[in-house]
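User: Here's a chain of 140 residues. Predict its fold as tokens.
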Amino acid sequence: MDDFSDIINLPHHVSKTRRQMPIADRAVQFAAFAALTGYDEKIGETARLTDVRTAMAEDDLAALDAAFQRLLDAEPMHPTAALIFFQPDARKAGGRYVNYTGVFRHYDAAEHMLIFTDGTRIPVQSVCKLMPADDTDGQI
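Assistant: Prediction complete.
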């Protein structure tokens, strides 16, 4: 019974009222329903724009260094700082510039990270602009 010997030699049923489906059409019915699964996501990812990180001028680097030193000097008072940093994109070349304002807690010299009281960790090398939050006048 397990080898289907009771039905293996029965004649193949052919309908008298319906035409047989062509072999090419029979193959199509077994194709995947969504042959392009993920295609829309790939197109969306390709179309998503990223920024290119621009090199900073010497004057801007000097101003950033001075602002960083002021922040380190004020570390015991936990000042509020506003900054702009470049966040690399995880999936493609480039990234985006992010505005951030937070209460500065600590500078981790071993990892070169600015650590804020809300747990945010920002690599120093990604910072483009740094200022005390009260100097921002609502703009970073």
